[in-house]
Amino acid sequence: MALPLTIWEFQKQHYDVHYQAWFIGGIFVILSMPISIYEIAMHTEYYTQPRLQKHVIRILLMVPIYAVDAWFALRRGGTAGYLDPIRECYEAFVIYSFFAYLMAFLQDTYGDLDEHMSKKPQMEHMWFLGWLLRPWDMGTRFLWECKKGVLNYVILRPICTALAFITDIFDKYGEGQINFKKSYVYLAAVTNFSQLWALYCLVMLYTAMHTELIPIRPLSKFLCIKAIVFVTFWQVGQGLGG
Q1: Could you report the per-residue pLDDT of 74-117, keeping only the tens digit for each?
Q2: Statement: residue 226 has pLDDT above 60
Q3: Residue 206 has what pLDDT?
Q4: 89 vs 164: CA distance, rounded Å
Q5: Cα–Cα distance for residue pair 72/209, rounded to 1 Å
């Protein structure tokens, strides 16, 4: 109730739209920070499954990092150039942490995961990729391809972020511009392809081990991880549209 009233009051007083966005964003930061910090504190206090909980804590840290970055970018656009690289690199780390979380649970539960998966029926690639790629042999090969797919994003994201930062210094980045003389178009293409491949590999792992993963209810967690990537992608798309 307070938020709509605040917006209405801002409209009455003719405050700048940018200031309104910054103030409302601050409200959401104030709401999200205590919740995420409380969840992290509870995990550290009841640290009974360290192999799993360390990954959960790393994922939860994405909330304050993203919230603070977005709020500062609204308040002072110039700070985004320094804070965004931290957030972007941490996004990649979060996706890998989710993969590591799933693997830690499966290894703790089933022991030799390579042997366990080798007994499963052969899984084909999804969608049109079945026409382009040969199936990954179930077992060691399948798990390695999934891990490699996630790691590709963990490695490429910081590299692309560093290249964006360097080219921006020399006025060769052109953020949000479809300009083939600038680096933005190429770096965005590489980053987005890498993101999609990492998510595809997570989907493959989830599909192959769906039954085994039921105890930790990974679907909602997976959708949150996907949201991290696709909301960021949507923001990039808005920049291109502008």
Answers
A1: 776 555 566 778 888 888 899 999 999 999 999 999 988 999 99
A2: yes
A3: 92
A4: 12
A5: 40
One-character DSSP codes across 121-161 = PP-PPPTTHHHHSPPPPTTHHHHHHHHHHHHHHHHHHHHHH
| Amino acid identity at 194 | S
Answer yes or no: are the C-beta atoms of 184 and 172 closer than 8 Å. no
- Residue 46 is given by DSSP the state T
Mean pLDDT over the full length of the chain: 83
Neighbour tally for 183: CB within 10 Å:
20
Q: Which residue from 115, 137, 113, 139 is spatially nearest to 125, judged by alpha carbons?
A: 137
**Which residue in 59, 31, 93 sits closest to 224, CA to CA?**
59
Alpha carbon distance 218, 64 (integer Å): 22
What is the pLDDT, as a whole number, of residue 242? 43
